[in-house]
Amino acid sequence: MTTQVDRRRFLTSAALGGATIVGATALGSLAPEAAFGAVAPGVGPGDIDPQFAEGRVTSISGSLIVAAGSDGTLSAIQTTTGTSVWKLTPTSLSAIRPGDGLYARGVRMPDGSLAADALWVNIVSLDAHVANLASDHLDLDHHSSKIKAHVISGVSAAVYNGTPPVTDLSHVPVGGHVHVVGAWRPDTSEIDISTVYAKV
Questions:
Q1: Does the N-terminal or the C-terminal CB of the chain have fewer CB atoms within 10 Å?
Q2: Residue-wise over 177-200: b if at least 16 C-beta within 10 A, else e?
Q3: Which residue range is the domain that position 166 belongs to?
Q4: What number of other Cβ atoms are within 10 A of residue 67's Cβ?
């Protein structure tokens, strides 16, 4: 409970122009899997999480991002000096562009905006069938959609049977099923791979 109160106090202060938050990931994990993590306390299945926003970026003005949600709702997302940004790798707010998709977690402000402690930009998390394996990409089938998943040198990794991640994706099973976390290339059927989870 103390962590939640401290998180709210720090984010509120930063969003309103007070304190500067140091250590971008001090309030939570920036790992891409965290974007789909636990909801706020008291939020039941199917309920709206007040500490979460999603959508495609429609505008960026200084530290304010406006995103159109999948339900058509516009969300105002206030970033601070402590907002963590993931776009395949940890990055800065300057990497965000109109048209990008995002998930945001933070603290809801009195004006309805969300003071974000973490943003995940263009993140995808999907189960797929591996149709082909090449040195620089995987061809995936996801619910009858073809996806080209690019291997990014020094970034992409594979987790085989729950072991620690390795950069060698050559053991990803062609014809098998995998779970892929990565970054979507907006308005394409292509993604960049962060992590492939496979059983071999």
A1: N
A2: ebebbbbbeeeeebbbbbbbbbee
A3: 123-198
A4: 26
